[in-house]
Amino acid sequence: MMNRCIFSGFPLDPADHFRADATWISARLAHDSSRFLLYGRGRPLMDISEGLRPAYRSTAEVQDITGGHWDQLDWTFIGLDGDAAIFAIVLNQKLELSGHEKFIDLRSIAVQVSAEGFSAIPSLLGRGKMLLDWNGRRHFCSCCGHKTRTENGGYVRKCTNEACAAEHFPRTDPVVIMLVLQGDKCLLGRGVGWPEGNYSALAGFMEPGETIEEATRREVLEEAGVTVGEVTYIKSQPWPFPSSLMIGVQAKALTTDITTDTKELEDARWFDKAELRQIFETGGDDTFRIPPEIAIARHLLEEWLQEG
What we know:
The chain is of the alpha+beta class. The protein has two domains: 16-136, Nucleoside Triphosphate Pyrophosphohydrolase (Alpha-Beta Complex); 173-306, Nucleoside Triphosphate Pyrophosphohydrolase. It is built from eight helices and 16 strands. The strands form three sheets. Strands 1, 2, 3, 4, 5, 6 and 7 form a seven-stranded mixed beta sheet that branches. Strands 11, 12, 13, 14, 15 and 16 form a six-stranded mixed beta sheet that branches. A hairpin with a 2-residue loop joins β5 (75-81) and β6. α4 packs antiparallel against α5 (121-136). The two termini are 22 Å apart.
């Protein structure tokens, strides 16, 4: 598909039908064809010799590094690349790196690879990061406080207390991000602490019991004092910081007066479509910096500007 957001386009077969098969997972953890993505402090290990690509480790190398004590490690099955199983694992041990390997922040990776067009690498690394982050925060049961263990290839944590036996599942936090429109104008804001000229679409976490439309109307009214009517879904984007789903929408404004929530926004204003088209053509400047390509806000703006 064209015009995908960064962190979308997962390149592997998720093979979810194998996750619950503990024997299959155990065999794959020891299989010579399996490959491992390594993470240190949330940063994936990358091969920087020719551009950026994951620096996979073999089963034998990971066994040597970790001793194969899987019950003491945070790891997860990611999917199948052909017949090869791909796993992600957190390394707490010191690792000797070659001169062309480096642990790199995922945002930096996304920015660099997106400069050359769409790549599925951030989606692969993002899924590993999200699952490892979740596993790392769920070592203890939130129901009874006992330790949990990894099941279903890292997609479930189960309480080891037999009297409890609660199962915990990875969570995704939904976020609405909305391009608010009034005729040929759109509403953009600058968050508190953002550099001068950095404007983006308004956004906020959904609250329990809300629909996407309700969350959109509440957030725009809270942050900018603008009342919204019709809400139209456009596209979504996984966002692994730490584990959100950005739900991109267009929203039609019923009012235009702006009253900003100064705890959230330093500024909010209406931008003319013709003005923004010119800015996008010239690349922006210090008065208006175009949102980066990794942000869904960039996609929402570009698709609106391409409309007649």
